Amino acid sequence: MGCATARGSVVFVVLPLVLTSLLLHPSQARYSLSSSSSTSGPSIWGAILDEEPYLPFVGSGIKPSCRSSSSDASGMVTDSWLSSLEASLPTHRPQAYKWGPEMVEDNGGTVLALAGSDYCIIGADTRLSSDYRIRTRNVSRLMEVSSHTYMGMAGSWADSTALRREMAYDLSCFEAKHGRPIGTAALGTFLSNCLYLHRLQPMYALNLVAGLDDKGRGAIYSYDVIGSFNRVAAACCGRGQELMQPVLDQFTTEDRNQSVRQGCVPLSCEEALRVMKDAFLSGAEREISIGDGVEIVVLRKGHRPRVEKLKLPQH
What we know:
The chain is built from eight helices and 14 strands. By secondary structure, it is of the alpha+beta class.
């Protein structure tokens, strides 16, 4: 009686350990219904020390295998049971999302602006391209904020569209709260803050803000992708900046005229409009992403915005 009680106690203690090891470490399990040295029946100690990983099926005299082995071309033995188990388990920890410039597609586009003593002109081409493919020939990169303020966006069309929708919502809230549209100088600071909020994952939208300030003079604000900005007399952003910015630099030298120091070019409105058209025509001859047409908006104090179209070569 005492011997039977002791044997039952051993089985009661060891069996939970065996089952726990099987569930937690299936790749390290070594169980079978091997016979012990005596002929009294299956032995738990034989199941633990056996080399083959068999599951103990009670009531059967055979030893059913829970996996099969095979050898590949190199002669290494592979276990299909372990392979299927490892395939269903995660092989690595989830990685944090990392933004990179290579993830953004540059859709071309060029925006140019000139500011005068009583006017401001902004223009952008209408071609949307991807590498050497033309997506569309008639897209507007200018956003009307008010009758005296416009925004121009080049670069990634996806980021430009997202920024345009975000700005439209925030500006509508501003107008509903204050009862008037936002001013040019205030928009310059607001856009800077908006871009800086996305500094960890910058929006590849190259922006220009053009309009008239409180005194009726032209004002242009140029930005980088994280919101740094400054007020300039003439600016260009986008794919054709390297070609068209030198055309503007001849009119923005501070040594030539005092008006440049005040953020204006020493040109009349018609002269500035002619310079902008010539810059786009020369840029279209040398840059494949510039073409089809140009949308130009002329802002003058006491006048409604005037929109002009310029045809470019469809190369």
